[in-house]
Amino acid sequence: MTEKPIASPETEQALIACVLENPVHYKRLADIVNPSAFSWECFAWCWEAFERLSERGLQIDTVVLGDELEREAKLKEFCLPGSKQFTGRAAIGLIREIETQETGESYAITIQDYAGKRQIDQWLTIAHGQAHNGRAASAIMADLQASFGTLKLHSGKLATHTQTSKESGARAVELSRIASRGERAVTTGIKELDRLLYPQRGELITVAGQTGKGKSSLLATIALHAAQRGKHVKLFSLEMSGPQVAQRILSQLSKIPAHRIMQGQMSHDEWEQLDTAKNDFGELPIIICDMGAIKINQIRTESRRQPADVIMVDYIQLANADKPQQSRVLDVGEVTRGLKALAMELDIPLFAAAQLSRAVDGRGDKRPVLSDLRESGSIEQDSDSVVMIYQDPIKESSYELIIAKHRNGACGKVDVNFHPETTRFSGNEYKDQEGE
């Protein structure tokens, strides 16, 4: 039995006709479909020609299209699907004669959908061959996940992210009303930090610190607080295993020192406390992914598969670009752009830890600044907010959370306490930075 082609040349012809009939629609349609999405090569040539003509500011019509194809030495070969009786300008003229919809958006979406199906079919064919050639299932799946993460589909309305002033204005007022009722996308559990930082949907919030200064603990504190208030949390732990993350959270829940939980050195009563904490933890909407050296597309795929109210990534510099770049700085740039795009796509806050360089050790004032971020350019640029952790060198349990960047508000600092036994942060008092 012959399989039906994964394409619709008729739809492709109708889209070309729409543009020839009303060229004003081309730029909007070009946001949905590109030349590679066409299955019939001659129609891809048309779309490429439309792109060149549009860039030069020329009017699109059948005559100009014919001239452009002739300039590219493709006019003589131009023909319509299923018939080579008419070629060249005669074939272009026939396209104009078919009846079409007014704007052509549904045609463009259908063409893009078929292109996506062909790409999926190609990837699965490759995976099928690899499965029969002895490649490991984990490696095949990793490649598929990375490939699927690059697939760009269009559901209609480029739209879910394209709004009129009326729509975006109404949404802005709605968000203000939600905020006035005390409803937030997520809170951190540190009242003073919430007051200054105010995490928003679609934001990338970077928590930066040196090794061993509490980045993971702060993310765990925020994750636990959010989950206890019914928020679904997804935590990507690239440095610690899932059980290690759970041990920290269990320590916060049970108030039993983390090192004693890890060593199993507890009294009878503490074992009961731990068991209670385990049951409470089991009821919380927290999902932990501890895949090391994870790629940004794998983070994206997993996040789409099981939506959450807030995502945590620990930490940025341990994540990988989908394709290694010429330098680690470029790799990190792809990761941070991917995380920011993911936060906007899912419309949720995304907290990501980041490592600070040791340059701060050589200064008199040990308080970190933005330039201390390792591979700092992209992290600083792509983050909506950057929270930097500073430990008081004299009173070791006293910390400052320095908001060094805040795209939607003032910078400042929050005095907090760190409880190393249970790896938990708690609030102290709020202070504005002088001069802010």
Walk me through the structure:
The chain is α/β, with parallel strands linked by helices and 436 residues long. It has two domains: 1-153, DNAb Helicase, Chain A (Orthogonal Bundle); 179-431, P-loop containing nucleotide triphosphate hydrolases (Rossmann fold, 3-Layer(aba) Sandwich), CATH 3.40.50. The chain is 46% helix and 15% strand. The chain has a nine-stranded mixed beta sheet with strand order 5-4-6-7-3-8-9-10-11, sandwiched between helices. A two-stranded antiparallel ribbon has the order 1-2. Residues 155-161 and 429-436 have low confidence and may be disordered.
Unreliable runs = 155-161, 429-436
Q: How much is the radius of gyration in Å? A: 27 Å
Average pLDDT works out at 82
CATH architecture heading of the largest domain: 3-Layer(aba) Sandwich
Structural class: alpha/beta
Structure summary, number of beta strands: 11
Q: Give me the CATH superfamily of the largest domain.
A: P-loop containing nucleotide triphosphate hydrolases
Compile the SSE list and pairings.
Layout: H1 9-21, H2 26-30, H3 41-55, H4 62-71, E1 79-80, E2 83-87, H5 88-95, H6 105-132, H7 137-149, H8 165-180, H9 191-197, E3 204-209, H10 215-228, E4 233-237, H11 242-254, H12 258-263, H13 268-282, E5 286-289, H14 296-305, E6 310-314, H15 328-346, E7 350-355, H16 376-382, E8 385-391, E9 398-406, E10 412-419, E11 424-431
Parallel strand pairs: 3-7, 3-8, 4-5, 4-6, 6-7
Antiparallel strand pairs: 1-2, 8-9, 9-10, 10-11
Helix pairs in contact: 1-6, 4-5, 6-7, 7-14, 10-11, 11-13, 14-15, 15-16
